[in-house]
Every structure is written in structure tokens, then in C-alpha cells.
Amino acid sequence: MRSPLGSVVVFVAGLALLASCTSSEQGQAAAGEAAPAKIAFAPADGATEVSVLDPVKITVERGELTEATLTSPAGEPVEGAIAEDKLSWTSAEVLGYGKAYTYAATAVNADGKEQKLEGTFTTLAPAATPRATINPGDNATVGVGMPVSVKFPEGPVEDKAAVEKALTVETSQEVEGSWGWLNDQQVDWRPKEYWPANTEVSVTAKLYGLPYGGGAYGKADLSTQFTIGRNQVVKINTPDHKMNVYRDGQLYLSFPSSNGDDKDPNLNTPNGTVIVMAKEPVGDFSNPRYGYTNVKKKWAVRISNHGEFIHENEENRANIGKVNSSHGCVNLFEADAKRYFDSALIGDPVEVTGSKANFPTTSDVYDWLIPWSQWQTMSAQS
């Protein structure tokens, strides 16, 4: 008869032998089979309120991607590519607002064993996507005082710093300038001094997907390319009854004029630097406030939204070159007005001095009425 102790010893030894065999088999399995590929998505499966700007990435560990796709709700593939090392796929186009996208990926491990994974996510749905505009338009040729204007006519911008960071101005020659917010719905870029003549300008506004604040996001990117023309500046010292036109700093044309009534500051042609805003072969100068209607004048060049123009006024011929008698406009003889009209570009500066009143900062374009040091403080980046 064997002793109980001997039985216990034999039993324990048997357990030890069994355990040893099991560990050996798992070790051989770990050494003989490659770990499965591990696929990951960013944004994660089920994510919501995803930015439309952030690239979608599909990555793999312990293997290589053999296929990766991102599909729109319409079933259209989103452009993207697998990296050369086959460890990732990255999207190459922006996404749409408020849409559910589906991604799928296949990867293989070192043994060629496939692993598949699918998922979905949803992009953010803005409370509003207000449109924006940019000026000057493509292929325009403008004067040396022309600012770049980005406007948001459908509502105010709260996050001005974010918007300003998305705006880029590139020039064919070095130009110092800055953005300045004229109000909550308009930001302008102007140079410190007038643009150098013949500068090529390219402006990009990467606004799509950009948060404006208050739940509003940019509707679309904008861009424009335009050219600065020759340097032409009008200078008017109102007591001189004369309008001088300079090209490249040299006197180019000089015309007798009748400017705003000297005695009444409300009728002065105000002091300040403005720009040519529009040109009309025939302008309507009716003003019931002063008792005249159906007044048409030729070769009208608008220089402000305050009411000032440069135009012909043969009815005031007796005062042109002698007396300032207009209601704020610069009156010229018809032939002179036509000659100036033909020479002018939108954006040409008009510098007025000698008056009792100053231009108010209420016009659409008053950038040059602001001193440079003050203009710089109007940037959201200052």
C-alpha cells in the first residue's frame, strides 16, 4: 500500500507537468503567429460635431493598409491616399457641413491575415453660414489708394481674430500693410503708404469651416487677383480754386475748379484723403433738401458716400476757377471733366486740404482718413 503522502506528491507532480506543457504550447503559438493588425480611425467611430477642416486619418499598427475609403452620404468617395509606408490613409478634401460619413479599411498583418473595420462620424451643423464678399474683383486694375475689403453682409463677426488669421495678402513687391476692422461686418487691408505702381496682388480668404462665433461658420473660401495701376493722385487745396492731377509725383493735369462753399462748413469739400469709388458718364445730383431736382451732370466721379463728386457743371461756369460755390462737389468745365474722367481709376487717391470741415468716417471707404498708428490698432491681431 502506498502512503497518502506519496499519492499527494505524485498528484502535484502531475499538475506541474500538465502546466508546463500548456505554457509551452501558448509560447509556440505566440512565436509562430503574428499579432492581428490593429486599425484606428480619427475622428473616432460615432463622433459628432466633427470639424469639416480637419483631415480624416485611418491608421494601422502591426500591419499594412491594403484598402481604405471614406464615403459621403451620397455614396461618393472622398479623395484621399494611402501613405507610401502603408501605415496610414489621409483625406485630401474638406467635408460638408452636417453630414454623416462612413469609413472602411482593410489591413493585413505579417502573416497576410486580413483585418477589417468600419465606422461612421457626423460633421458639425452650423447655426448659420453667412456669405462673405471680397473686393477688388479678379483681374481688376485699380488705383494706388485701393484697399482690400472683406465684408460679411449677413451678420456680424464675433471671432475677428480667427477670421483675420485666415486672410492672406501676397504682393509682387514688398508692401507694408495691415488689416483693420472698420466695423463688425467689414475688415480692410491697406498699405502704410500708397501701393507701389504696377504691383500684382493676390488675396486669399480661407473662410470655409471657420467659426465666426455665435454658431456661425464660413460659407466658402474667397480669393482674388488684381493689379495696381499707375500712380495717379488728385490734390485739391480748396482756396486755390484748382484741381491738380499728379502722375508718379509729377504734375500731369491742372484744371480750374469751383469747390464747396467756403462760408458754410456743411457745404465745404471736406479735408482728408478719399478715393475714387465710382464713375458715371451722367450722374443724378438732385437734392430736394436744397430745392433742386432732376439735376444731371456729366463725367461724374464719386469720391465718397457723403455726397462728394468731381463732375462738370457748366451752369456754374462763371465761378469755376474763381469762387467756391458748390454744395461740396468739385465743379469742372465739361472738357476738363471729361479729360479727368477718362484718366481716373477706381482707387485713385483724392487729397483735399484748405477747408473748414473734415471728411466724416461714415463713407464706405474711409481707410485713408485713419492715421497709420491708429489703423494698426484696428487689427484683431494687434
From TrEMBL:
<dbReference type="InterPro" id="IPR005490">
    <property type="entry name" value="LD_TPept_cat_dom"/>
</dbReference>
<feature type="active site" description="Proton donor/acceptor">
    <location>
        <position position="311"/>
    </location>
</feature>
<dbReference type="GO" id="GO:0016746">
    <property type="term" value="F:acyltransferase activity"/>
</dbReference>
<dbReference type="GO" id="GO:0005576">
    <property type="term" value="C:extracellular region"/>
</dbReference>
<feature type="active site" description="Nucleophile">
    <location>
        <position position="329"/>
    </location>
</feature>
<feature type="domain" description="L,D-TPase catalytic">
    <location>
        <begin position="232"/>
        <end position="353"/>
    </location>
</feature>
<dbReference type="Pfam" id="PF17964">
    <property type="entry name" value="Big_10"/>
</dbReference>
<keyword id="KW-0133">Cell shape</keyword>
<dbReference type="InterPro" id="IPR050979">
    <property type="entry name" value="LD-transpeptidase"/>
</dbReference>
<comment type="pathway">
    <text>Cell wall biogenesis; peptidoglycan biosynthesis.</text>
</comment>
<dbReference type="GO" id="GO:0008360">
    <property type="term" value="P:regulation of cell shape"/>
</dbReference>
<dbReference type="GO" id="GO:0071972">
    <property type="term" value="F:peptidoglycan L,D-transpeptidase activity"/>
</dbReference>
<keyword id="KW-0012">Acyltransferase</keyword>
<keyword id="KW-0573">Peptidoglycan synthesis</keyword>
<dbReference type="GO" id="GO:0071555">
    <property type="term" value="P:cell wall organization"/>
</dbReference>
<protein>
    <submittedName>
        <fullName>L,D-transpeptidase</fullName>
    </submittedName>
</protein>
<keyword id="KW-0808">Transferase</keyword>
<dbReference type="GO" id="GO:0018104">
    <property type="term" value="P:peptidoglycan-protein cross-linking"/>
</dbReference>
<dbReference type="InterPro" id="IPR038063">
    <property type="entry name" value="Transpep_catalytic_dom"/>
</dbReference>
<dbReference type="InterPro" id="IPR041280">
    <property type="entry name" value="Big_10"/>
</dbReference>
<dbReference type="Pfam" id="PF03734">
    <property type="entry name" value="YkuD"/>
</dbReference>
<keyword id="KW-0961">Cell wall biogenesis/degradation</keyword>
